[in-house]
Amino acid sequence: MVRRVKRTGWLLCMPGFVVLAVAFVWPMIILARMSLNETADTGAMVETFSLATYRKLAEDSFTWQMTADSLLLSATCATFALLLAYPMALLLFRSTSRFRHLLAIVAVAPLLVSGTARVIGWLAILGDRGMINNILRFVGLGVQPLINNWTGVRIGLTESVMPYAMLALLGGFGRLDRLLEEAAATLGAGPMRRFWRVTFPLTLPAVTAAWLLAFVLTVSAFITPHLMGGGRVFVLATEIFDAASVTLDWPAAAALSIYALVLLMLLLGAQATLLRKRRT
Amino acid sequence: MAHLVLNQLSRAYAGRPAVVDLSLSVERGSLVALLGASGCGKTTTLRMVAGLETPDSGSILVDGRDVTKLPPHHRRMGVVFQSYALFPHMSAAANVAFGMEMHGVDRTRRAKRGAEMLALVGLAEHSNKKPRQMSGGQQQRVALARALAIEPDVLLLDEPLSALDAKLRDELRVEMRAIQRRVGATTLFVTHDQAEALAMADLVAVMDRGQIAQLGTPVDVFERPASPFVAAFVGRSARFRGKVAGGGVEISGASLRADNLPASGAIEVFVRPHRMQVLRPDEGRDNIVHGRLAAIDYTGEVAQLVIDSPSGRFPVDIATTDGAWRELAPGADLRVGWQAADTLWFAA
Question: What pLDDT is stored for residue A18 in this prediction?
Fold first, then answer.
């Protein structure tokens, strides 16, 4: 039974609020403030209150190209990650094997390895002298550039968000019930129609949630595009990093960060509205 | 030729037999109840008929056609599951139309027959509701309408009423039986509730450890149980153990008369509690047992007495109509009697 929480219950949330305020809200305020500064032509930062940095970014066609590239990359990787994770998640969800938990751990094991280590692994697999290209050379297909370009970043990002997509799917499969498929079978539905008419629609909320999670993670991913793009792949996260620590243009880095944040929030908001519309 | 024939069906799980050599014939349009405790194999039997479980051996015939090897979606069995298994993302109408769509019924006929089916179960006004917006009883009716909509060869009901509260269960029991009669569906009905089985079925198959212990009409299995198991499982009984001697059954403290007794041997006697009476001093019966009243429970229509006698503790039900039960108090010494014809016995 639900017991009404006393009015003082919110006090329990205080530690969490304090951490959020100190570690998230305060830095965001500093970031927003920084984005209103200007950078002089000499590269020196000028303390002021203007939108000059934003204007400069907006007038630069590179910003828009990069935005489009970033979003397309994220959408592609999120979609591929989901296509790969969905059958695995479904298998795991339904499995009655006693190795089920072991399989689940194996499926999310990549999370236990640092992003940098994984990229080094990919170099060994995708590099010009890597495993795949050795095989391609052997069968006479020649060397394919699979790393230090967009292809490499797509492969790396897809792999890195797959475990998250898996977890999100597994968590969202709650409404799925084997009995519903049995019911569909007795009503004359073959395996394909059972999947598309019953199983898939019931997992759709999980699919949406998992796709969004993967999308957000890829938009904000930095290590993989940075290391696997070989300096030829420009996305929002790498640009922010470059501005902050290579060109030391802090106002630009801050403005780009705020821009990326607003962009994501708009996308999530639009998606939430769409979902709510469809449900009613 | 029977409409549905189960022929020596067997199924084991990990070496543990669930259904053993089970044979059963169901006539067209009749309702057969599989009655048994949980784990007796009744649900496994139903699932094998539906095609959701593969028998290890034996065969299933519908209209003489062997369907044993057919997957469920090629069988046309209308199944109502215990938890209904309604599609949560579809309205009541869509749930009912689903099976027809799978069987290639065109849209206009689907809509027409779907509306008819929902009207049949009394839910015409609720066709646009999702399952979660409906009560348990309404969901149960949608499940029945959905199963009937595909014009099934056989209707399979797996404890369809067990998730409902008692009053609604009784109402729906009558209603389901009426609908089943009206559409003439050959029906296999799984239940652990003997009242449900006796009230609804043309024939009751009492199941025990994967086999049919007795197949008979509701009156047969209750009045003329074929074995001590059936006598004990269907309805309550007073049980006495004794020996045949001098044309009667000798039990501790009494000699009982019964019809068609053998010449000798150990015997187990069953008497239904409602067949026994508490006797006044001047009353007589074929059989009389003395005992002390241990407890009395008033349940409305009857008062259930628990009586301790030299041959053990046994129940007696007395009607509450005349109010005589009020004069009985625990500790009282009573004479309990019944007629020889009401004495069921089995050689022990």
Answer: 94
CA distance, residue A271 to nearest chain B CA (Å): 20
Write down the domain spans for chain B: 4-232, 236-347
Q: Does A175 touch chain B (CB under 8 A)?
A: yes
Q: Give the chain B residue nearest A205 (alpha carbons).
A: B89
The verdict on residue A242 lying in a domain is yes
- Residue B130: its pLDDT value, please? 95
Say if A3 falls within a structural domain. Answer: no
CA nearest A200 in B: which residue?
B89
What total number of domains does chain A contain? 1
Residue whose tokens read 């499995």: A95
Residue A190, phi-psi category: left (phi > 0), alpha (psi -120 to 50), beta (remainder): beta
Residues of A in contact with B80 (CB under 8 A): none
What pLDDT, on a 0 to 100 scale, did the predictor assign at position A6?
Answer: 64
Kindly report the CATH number assigned to the domain that includes residue A249: 1.10.3720.10
Shortest distance, CA A187 to any CA of chain B (angstroms)? 4
| Best B87, B100, B128 residue to mutate vs chain A (most A CBs within 10 Å) | B87
What's the pLDDT tens digit per position in B287-300?
999 999 999 999 99
Nearest CA in chain B to A178: B85
pLDDT for A90 beyond 70: yes
Give the closest residue to A189 by CA, choosing from B317, B28, B103, B20: B103
pLDDT tens column, B83-94: 999 999 999 999
Identify the CA nearest to A130 among candidates A140, A120, A139.
A120
Distance between A181 CA and the closest CA of chain B, angstroms: 9
The predicted pLDDT at position B335 comes to 94
Residue A7 lies in a domain: no
Q: Does domain B4-232 have CATH number 3.30.365.10?
A: no
CA A52, A55, A61, A62 torsion-angle sign: positive
CATH class of the domain comprising B236-347:
mainly beta
Give a yes or no: residue A1 inside a domain: no
Q: Which of B48, B49, B52 to mutate to test the interface with A (most CBs of A within 10 A)?
A: B52
Asked whether the predicted pLDDT for residue A275 surpasses 80, the reply is no
| Residue environment code for B17-36, b if the CB has 16+ CB neighbours within 10 A, otherwise e | bbbbebebbbeeebbbbbbb
What's the domain range around A80? 28-39+49-279
Q: Which residues of chain B have pLDDT under 70?
A: none
Paired tokens of B21: 């050599």
Question: For residues B255 and B288, what is the distance between their CA atoms, to the nearest angstrom?
Answer: 8
pLDDT at A96: 83
Interface pTM, i.e. ipTM: 0.86
